[in-house]
Batch of 2 targets.
Target 1
Amino acid sequence: MKFDNIIIGGGLSGLTCGIRLSQEGKKVAIISAGQSTLHFGSGSLDLLGYDEEGNTVEHPLDAIDHLNKNHPYRKIGADRIENLTAEAKKLLDECGIHMTGSVQKNHYRITPMGVLKPTWLTLENYATSPSATELPWRSVIIANVAGFLDFPVEFIADGLAKLGTRPEVEIISIPTLKARRHSPSEMRSANIAKILSSEETLEQIAEVLNGMEETAEAILMPAIVGLDKEETEASLKQKVRRPLLLLPTLPPSVPGIRIQTMLQKQFTHLGGLYLLGSTVTNGNVSNGKLEYVMTSTMMDEKLTADNYILATGSFLSDGLKSNYERIYEPILDLDVEASKNRAEWIDPNVFNAQPYHSFGVKTNENFQPSLKGQTLENMYAIGSVLGGHNAIHQADGTGVSMMTALAVANRLINKI
Amino acid sequence: MATDLQLTSISEKDLEQCLKCSICTVYCPVSSVTTLYPGPKHAGPDGERYRMKDRRFFDEDALKMCLNCKRCEVACPHGVQIGDIIMSARMKYSRHSAGLRDFMLANTDLMGTVATKVAPIANYMTKAAPVKSILHNVMGIEKNRTFPDYARQTFESWYRKEAAESQDKFEKQVSYFHGCYVNYNFPQLGKDLVKVMNAIGYGVKLLEKERCCGIALITNNMPSQAMRQGKTNLKSMQLSVEQGRPVISTSSTCTFTMRSEYEHILHLDNEVAKNNLSLATRFIYRLIEEGNVRLAFQKDFHMKVAYHTPCHMERMGWAVYSTNLIKMIPGVDFIMLDSQCCGIGGTYGFKKENYSISQKIGEKLFHQIQESQVDCVATDCETCKWQIEMSVSTPVMNPISILAQALDVEETRRLNKKPDKQD
Ligand code: SF4
Ligand code: SF4
């Protein structure tokens, strides 16, 4: 089967790149080995939250020039990043993913542990703060559903109290949610959201929320509504008298799944082919070019394209692997940036930046990887599979995914 | 030594590869509509750890609710064979043998042989209210479900009478695994296949011996019979391949069963199926793509078609072949439906205890089909066809039948005639 572009990996970077290329009329296939790490998403997209020393970044664009030369943002350049963020925002809007925030100045999202983290864009209807040290409310109700354990209310209440907001915890339920507890292992955000998708159940929840004492300024609720569409959130908000805002939960993440679904819909709507549940097993390189890839599902079918984009993610998604000897890229064994000395992979203090988090596929300034020192002309690597940055320590993972995806897509569009 | 141990000790069905990420719980059609099912993660890798320690952790009633759709496996980012773990656990730990109802539903071959002999009576009986009520109350077969009609003449006997002789004149040949549905209920699909294959220059042979692929035996916990039938099919396939004929099928479920379940659930050596058994749409599409075959279509053919991806097709990852083939037909106005379970799960939806779950699962799909206002739904699975036709009024066709209708047979034949054979 022949395509203009084959993207290996169907998460945030793969889909962003795929949508951009499809918009220009390219014939694109995305091959995805299972669902992506967007399922662990926070409902926010980070661009750059902390510098390499761990200090909070307020103005991400100003901080880019201070990053190490290998950081993907440095390869793109701070001036271009600003344009690409505008492009990213437009792309999300077109997919029906409505987010607020500015690249000029970070705002703060609230984690499921009740801590504030700097971020770039956040879904509408989610709780945020413009400040790193306080919240916009004096008092809030944290309303969790009885039996829902992926939302540690005590931690959140503690965290909010430390920021000077008085939290009140309320445990709520309605009959359908009570019944859901029959299988505790399935009392998960997405399954709850499937129940809270009808007007009838939303009315019931709203009634419970409206019955609470009117002392707090706002109600914070776990992200258990709006799995398919944003309108469900709006509908619930409208029924509740006080401001109602959502907080991310532990995985699976309802906002993350919605982002994934909407991106995927847009990609297929533009004519892209999304192959889910298929793993790229190997490929053939000759004369500095990748000639084809093979998959776990399509037997002897060779998938060919003019250009290939590796968007397989980091260790969690098997984009990078390790054994006792080395860190490697499992499909083609591309060159990686990683220490050869195993003792240097980790820092014994778990709270420090872990060296292995910055390992990744080695690329040139155009994000083209190499094999045994030879650059692959028709291949690119984007997103978390890239080295030189640390998604956890610097809060730059989703930003790197979108920026590198757009940078590579634009290069491929303008090349011919 | 220790190095080898940790790096190579991958458990069966990748049980210990589970990250506990819970992604699978989002995509299980059963736990989306009922709170009684513990979900893929718990029924699969989590529960298996307990069951391995003590059989008493085996909750048969819960695990029976799994449809065997494998959508959890498609979603799992770490390759855990969740559905296989559940199905295997049912076989490994259950001490019950299948009752009469499950035996009847699972033995599609036997039931078909009997019923086609008395097709008009059988078709009347399965529709008659008193019979349905007995089936429902005594046997536990849902009364609201429409049974597929039985044909008066099986595909095999039609083939022997009408088609067999003319197949030898083709230089290239395939063997056709028709499956029970084509043989007993809907021979037309088999006839369509023969028509299409002949038009592109391929003769169609039957396997030396064909038995039901056994999927219903697997899901109804009759492994030894499934294994016997599996061995017969694999042996026949081997013979066919040795004689130069690859094997094709028009059912995504039969294909999936023989390519995957034979190995993962029945532990049969099915290399021959994995390497040589293909879905007809895939086989034809690839011939066209490689430039070895050309199709010509009727000028006035027009049809608005929506494609539904059967669960086992989704797991195989082959829907693209069927949809690409349909899209090649110039008169087709194509819509891709969201890939989601229709709820039937083979014999699952025929059981009265599952009927309401089955219909609830399908709701979203039915709704989307109604909204799409198409002339027909295309799909590669016969049980999806029953479920959709029973639940919405839109007719359902196999892509091969659509192709057979759209094809300009004479012109296609001419295009695919070998130049050296023209004299
Ligand atoms: S999706 Fe896979 S890895 Fe995640 S919990 Fe389910 S079985 Fe485990
Ligand atoms: S096979 Fe289907 S029904 Fe069974 S657990 Fe997996 S997703 Fe659920």
Note: Residues B 28-30, 40, 43, 66-72, 82-83, 86 surround iron/sulfur cluster (ligand 2) (CB under 6 Å).
Target 2
Amino acid sequence: MKQNRFWAWVVFLAGAAYFVVPLAATFEFSLRMRRDYYSFDSYASVFSDPAFQATFSYSVVIGLFAIVMGIVVVVPAVYFVRLRMPWLRPFMEFVTLLPLIIPAIILVYGYIRLYNSSSIIPFTGSALGTDILLVFAYVTLALPYTYRAVDTGMRTIDVQTLTEAAQIAGANTVQIITSIILPNILVAVLSGAFLTFAIVIGEFTIASLLNRPAFGPYLQNIGANRAYEPAALAIISFIITWGAMGMINVLGRFAPRTSARTD
Amino acid sequence: MAFLDVSKLTKSYGSNTVVKGVSFGFDKGEFISLLGPSGCGKTTILRMIAGFETPSSGTVMVDGQDITSLKPNQRQLGMVFQAYALFPNLNVGDNIGFGLKIAGVPAEERRARVVDMLKLIGLPGFETRYPYEMSGGQQQRVALARAIAPRPRMLLLDEPLSALDAKIRVSLREEIRAIQRELGITTVFVTHDQEEALSISDRIVVMNAGNIEQLGAPHDIYNTPKTRFVATFVGQLNNLDVTVADPVARTVSLDGQIITVPNLPAGISANAAMVLTVRPEVLSVGQRPGNDVTLNGTVEDVTFLGSVIRIRVKLGHNVVSLDTFNDQRAAPPQRGEVITVTLAGKDLLVLAN
Ligand SMILES: Nc1ncnc2c1ncn2[C@@H]1O[C@H](COP(=O)(O)OP(=O)(O)OP(=O)(O)O)[C@@H](O)[C@H]1O
Ligand SMILES: [Mg+2]
């Protein structure tokens, strides 16, 4: 028994070290900007850089649009597949996995070919058009996560009966989705949203090739040209990503409660 | 013209026809039950009335309007589901007020209607509760209030009680009936429980395999079933093997005893074997005024059911069940005891197969 416990701890600590040591080392390094003693100078330098503020807010805005766009696309799609076309589910599962299989670089080269300034739909011809294209790309990248989050959320409610109950009370499809379905899967939708956000904040390939001033290319640029700031930025990105993940866990506590009772 | 008029309604799934040209008409304010065994098409008919299924052919008219091709949200009907189906994200007040809100009723009026509805279902002050904070019976009452709050033209109920415990099932069905009477709302109630259907309906549609077997008031269905299916599905039934004595005089021979019966199948000949059926409560232990047939038998089994005692008796080569009221001053008959059983020949049922 004691022996078991010992080896369990060894394995756990080895795993934890794999994770914690580089992180601690990065953190330690980020504090050494000033000679001889620790300081937060590198963080101060990062936060006061106007390019940091500009690229970070740009990515936040793009992220928020990607979240809204993802909800508008995914929630009705999952709803109709569950309600009317359950035979389409295996196909949906497959299609939504594609972004994990196909590298982002292929996606973005495809976009550039299809939507370049001399094409029929010249998205890349203007900054706004390119921003829209970037949002579309991020919705696609996040699809494997948002689709599964929303699908899991809908599994916990009786979509068909709730739909029928709302229909017979006079509600139309838009009213049903916005006032009944969406509020009941809100936790799942939000966890999909945080995942989308975490992906968008650090994404490099697409933003860089579309030449947009996003946070990912900024990170890359700093990493290539500075000494201590990249370490500080790595820690900041890590905190943002894990903050988003943590929110998903917190939200889990607000999942809808079952009301099935016979008494 | 009937208020609810269903005409030649048919529904097929592929080559499988589950509702086969069903027609019926009901008046305003009637409480109608669709009764039948599992899979006979009751739910399918109700869902076609609600608009959730499209009929393969046939029409549904409500109050003179053909609603066959309307969407469910255009039909102005109310429905209660087996699984309650309250909206989990809304509290009781918002659940009941949902249909009113959709219809654009102002908030003040909505709140007043919710208060009225909660009073009607005996849950005053429950506005701010959430569905998961209530028992199944309370949730189903809220579901009923939600269905009737927008004053629908008709109320549809699909086995609303079958997810509930036995005690609540009985008390809630009485409540549903009382509320229905008070509002005078035409109601279609689907059930596979014959006792439920008999106890609350004005009229019952007995269904079997997609067809109507019989349509009538509960006492008609029970006392004069038209087919063997109806007789066996609704209530208990005993079979008696007899031979025809005289087809013209309508007499049969039961273990040598000649009995006059209400009717005989057309064209049956003397000495033909046939089966008579009789309800348990028609048989009495000992003499009773009006009973003209006396049989002797041996008690095979006695089941004590509280106020009623069910006795199985072997009469010649037939075994029958009969019910007697419990008599607290006399012991129930013992197994093996020889008793006299009497009945009135006119209460025997001769059923087409
Ligand atoms: N969507 C469907 N596709 C194919 N067959 C169906 C469908 N819905 C119902 N059926 C079939 O139609 C028949 C009637 O079903 P229905 O639900 O009306 O029965 P019911 O009388 O309500 O039974 P129960 O008492 O079990 O609820 C059943 O045999 C069922 O298998
Ligand atoms: Mg059914």
Note: Chain A has one domain: 50-252.
